[in-house]
Design a protein that fits this description.
This protein is mostly helical. The protein has ten helices and no strands.
Length: 210
């Protein structure tokens, strides 16, 4: 049996998709707690990166490309969404407002530095770089593929055992999808992802992602 043929078959891709993007997050939530949930995320990202580098059809420039001319659009979005998040958190969850950095500054500082390596880059490799390179063969319709990505990205965040994280990540997922489609850059989309994360953890909204 030719493993390459099996790996690239539509049937295998469907099974892989269901196992990794649908069932696996719920298994992680069932058997792991706290920061231990990050370990499978990092391992899968490393494995997917390895598979991408072995694929001759994968454009490796995606991993190193950085489009400076797109930064203005990202910054404008970040500013608008920051204002909305600050208002929303203060209005709906006032008890959480700036709670994390004030009451647990040491943990907040660690999050500040580890968040991109332990969460942002792994997520963007799995949910943007690998996902769109791999599954466009199964779902060639662009907007259906984008919708499926936003949905599974949201489903993953059910591991935090609240309704806010999945809804927030479904909405944020569209921003990351749009960024990636426009830039085809892991660095661009990860940078924007990182800043949204920092804003959420700073103002207290990150409570729902712990």
């Amino acid at each position: 049996m030719n493993l390459k043929i099996v790996y690239n078959s539509a049937a295998f891709m469907v099974v892989e998709f269901i196992v990794i993007y649908v069932f696996f997050p719920f298994l992680v939530n069932a058997f792991l707690d706290g920061w231990y949930k990050i370990i499978p995320l990092v391992l899968i990202a490393v494995f997917f990166l390895f598979l991408l580098l072995l694929d001759p059809k994968f454009d490796r420039r995606v991993l190193t490309r950085f489009k400076k001319d797109y930064l203005g659009k990202s910054i404008a979005r970040i500013l608008i969404i920051t204002v909305l998040l600050v208002w929303f958190t203060f209005w709906i969850f006032p008890e959480l407002f700036f709670l994390y950095p004030v009451e647990n500054f040491k943990s907040y500082a660690i999050t500040f530095f580890l968040y991109p390596l332990a969460s942002v880059f792994p997520q963007e490799i799995i949910y943007r770089v690998y996902y769109f390179h791999r599954y466009h063969k199964v779902v060639p319709e662009k907007y259906l593929l984008m919708l499926s990505n936003a949905i599974v990205f949201s489903l993953t965040h059910f591991i935090y055992d609240n309704w806010v994280a999945p809804i927030a990540t479904f909405l944020a997922g569209w921003i990351f999808i749009y960024n990636y489609y426009k830039t085809r850059s892991l660095l661009n989309v990860s940078l924007e992802h990182y800043f949204y994360g920092l804003i959420m953890f700073t103002i207290g909204f990150g409570y729902f992602f712990q």
